Amino acid sequence: MLLEVRDLHVEFRTRDGVAKAVNGVSYGVDAGETLAVLGESGSGKSVTAQAIMGILDMPPGRITGGEILFQDRDLLTLKEEERRKVRGAGMAMIFQDALSSLNPVLSVGEQLGEMFVVHRGMSRKDARAKAVELMDHVRIPAARERVKQYPHQFSGGMRQRIMIAMALALEPALIIADEPTTALDVTVQAQVMDLLAELQREYDMGLILITHDLGVVADVADRIAVMYAGRIVEQAPVHDIYKAPAHPYTRGLLDSIPRLDQKGQELYAIKGLPPNLMAIPPGCAFNPRCPMAQEVCRVDVPPLYEVSAHGEPEHVVAEPGAERVSACHFWRECLHG
Amino acid sequence: MAEPILEVSGLFKHYPLTQGILFKKQIGAVKAVDGVDFTLLRGETLGIVGESGCGKSTVAKLLVNLEKPTAGAIRYKGEDITRLSGKALKAVRRNIQMVFQDPYTSLNPRMTVGDIIGEPYDIHPEVAPKGDRRRRVQELLDVVGLNPEYINRYPHQFSGGQRQRIGIARGLALRPEVIVADEPVSALDVSVQAQVINLMARLQDEFELSYLFIAHDLSIVRHISDRVGVMYLGRIVEIGRDAEIYDHPTHPYTQALLSAVPVPDPDAREHRERIILAGDVPSPTNIPSGCRFRTRCWKAQERCALEVPVLAVPAEFRHASGPQAHDSACHFAEEKQVVPPEGASDDHDDGTP
């Protein structure tokens, strides 16, 4: 495994109380693989990514438990200086909003070149040449002229390409993309996702794609982890999950999106609202909104069960690395229902 | 049933670009809306889709009179509202209300929910006498699925989906006939989106509303709309019933747009044809001559640069009666199926490749 997150816990101490944003998340990604982390706002998907990158705001954030193994080293035990070397050269992140992630008063060439000056000790002139090369690589037309321009002179899609170029600059082993195309229009979104997938193949990178868009996930991911209230509720290869979800939350999400190819009747709507992270319901966090909830769901927090279409009638708690897991006491009923 | 309630014809909105401080001189214009025509029928939902900058939100603002058009007419029940003023305008505005995109910024944080929803009654006191307002507001809260006891709460005490319900309740307060909804669900989470879409569909039946539903999400627009118009750079390039547009698009832009939408089905990944458009949308200050889509179109020929295509049934389909015969502004319109017909489609393919 290129990256392995084990039982990560993150909380935020605020004036109003402690918000438990991440409550025991474990996932891994291999070189060349795309893991999609799917969840709604407040599910903890971005906080987990920030913890991996080491860019979590601390305080108010606090990592209260777990390990983050990257190329077999636990990042959480490294010194900040070591951590900085990993960041950029080992792993890089692409953010949702390219305009606010770029410095408005520096030309894009300076910002791209800075990577090489800081991490590789190159001269400014060489760094500039590298920046042009990178911009060419992410197919920005007229790179030689545009390298002198400022972020506001680029369109949204072009800015996101610059972000991708910046992430790729030092050829990291892992890229974390947090809603990379959410701010873009559909036609541009398709261009950017295609580019990202192509570059991933070229460099054999691991990719963690954080998104709320089930369509984007179906297009590019190998595996999906679905998050709810700071936990992974289901993790599976992408084909399995769309064919037969093993968690009522995943099922609800899939049923609630309108389809391009069908004119539906009334949409299925998951009732209620996502939980307040300062008061996560006891038992299964999804139980107040779940159509299948029973008494046990209000009491026992479901562990991650191993999901297999045939096999043991008994529920088995999953070993780390199991191919398909679900945190539902009734995953079998959900799978076949 | 099928009488028009809003007729938009030749609508233009150009924002002037000026230079100089004291003696401003116009050096150009942002052509946000550049010749739009459509009709909204009573009780129907017309969806308008398009990418950012295509002018769809400007159309919304023009319809509710937040902006004055540069040229063109907006007829509400036959009367051109762009020429009205004073009392007559006020009376018409009551009947065309708007629901905004962002439920976080479109509600005043210092007003209670009761004041927000009741504020339209201050401007149109004839709708509800003063003593009756509180009860009306509580009724509206109930109608949009919120607890009527929340009347004294403030917007920050609600989630995004609940706030959008408040925005919808405010839009309904004056019992309008037309609701213009500009991206009403795009700021909401997936699970909450469905709730709001269902609510809007229910209210339409209950209050016999006509919707102009503006969004960039093609799946949502298909779900809610009876007819769909596709906008590009200030103009409608194709318009028709939802099955005509989604299953039988004839304009290359519509085809590209549909093919780019990610479909939540990993099996479709391999056998889907994707049309990836080159480049970006041109600037609305400098619209290409002829067909405005030609700079990104794979079919463009010389004719496209010279002649502006009109929005009408293309000549090749003029004598056809099938779903491909709908308005499309392209010189080289041809049918192309880009959305794979998955499962139950509500109409049959008539064999045109």
Count of discrete domains of chain A: 2
Q: How many individual domains of chain B?
A: 2
The total count of strands of chain A amounts to: 12
- CATH class of the largest domain in chain A, named Alpha Beta
Q: Beta-strand level of the residues of chain B, as a percent range?
A: 15-25%
- CATH superfamily of the largest domain in chain A, please? P-loop containing nucleotide triphosphate hydrolases
CATH architecture of the largest domain in chain A: 3-Layer(aba) Sandwich
Name the helix and strand elements of chain A from N-terminus to C-terminus, one letter apiece: EEEHEEHEHHHHHEHEHEEHHHEEH
Mean pLDDT of chain B: 87
- Order of adjacent strands in the largest pleated sheet of chain B: 6-7-8-3-9-10-11
Low-confidence stretches of chain A: none
Query: Can you give the helix content of chain B as a percent range?
Result: 25-40%
Instruction: Give a short account of the largest sheet of chain A.
Output: 8 strands, mixed
Strand order in the sheet with the most strands of chain A:
6-7-8-3-9-10-12-11
Structure explained in plain terms:
The complex is a heterodimer of chains A (337) and B (353). By secondary structure, chain A is of the alpha/beta class. Chain A folds into two domains: 3-226, P-loop containing nucleotide triphosphate hydrolases (Rossmann fold); 229-336, no CATH class. Chain A has 13 helices and twelve strands. Chain A has helices spanning 45-53, 80-89, 98-101, 108-120, 124-137, 143-146, 156-168, 186-203, 214-220, 238-243, 248-256, 295-299, 331-336; strands at 3-14, 17-29, 34-38, 61-70, 73-74, 91-94, 174-178, 206-211, 223-228, 231-237, 305-306, 325-326. In chain A, the strands form two sheets. An eight-stranded mixed sheet of chain A has the order 6-7-8-3-9-10-12-11, with helices on both faces. Chain A has a four-stranded antiparallel sheet with strand order 2-1-4-5, with helices on one face. In chain A, a hairpin with a 2-residue loop joins β1 (3-14) and β2 (17-29). In chain A, α5 (124-137) crosses α7 (156-168) and α7 runs parallel beside α8. Chain A is globular. With 353 residues, chain B is an alpha/beta fold. Chain B folds into two domains: 44-57 and 84-225, Rossmann fold; 231-328, no CATH class. In chain B, 28% of the residues lie in helices and 22% in strands. Chain B has helices at residues 56-63, 86-95, 113-123, 133-143, 160-172, 190-207, 218-224, 242-247, 252-260, 302-306; strands at residues 4-19, 25-41, 45-49, 71-76, 79-80, 96-99, 178-182, 210-215, 227-232, 235-241, 327-328. In chain B, β4 (71-76) and β5 form a beta hairpin. The interface between A and B is large, with 47 and 51 residues.
